[in-house]
Amino acid sequence: MAVGYELFDETRAALIDGTLSMVISHPMETFARETIRTLIKAKKAGADAGAQRVALGFEIYTPENV
Fold this sequence. Notes:
- Helices cover 41% and strands 15% of the residues.
- With 66 residues, the protein is of the alpha+beta class.
- It has one domain (3-65).
- The chain has a three-stranded mixed β-sheet with strand order 1-2-3, with helices on one face.
- It is elongated and about 50 Å long.
């Protein structure tokens, strides 16, 4: 089993031809929005606030759903 990351033309083709079994992908718009939101939150909280954690969802693509 081979797994790819992000659904690009190349990984889509690899799914279709059987080179990859699945592709895991994070929606980039959500990733960017949460990154900026977390940076702002960390800045407002100050240096002593500790680590910021964010859980991001992901999508799984298989040959059957591309």
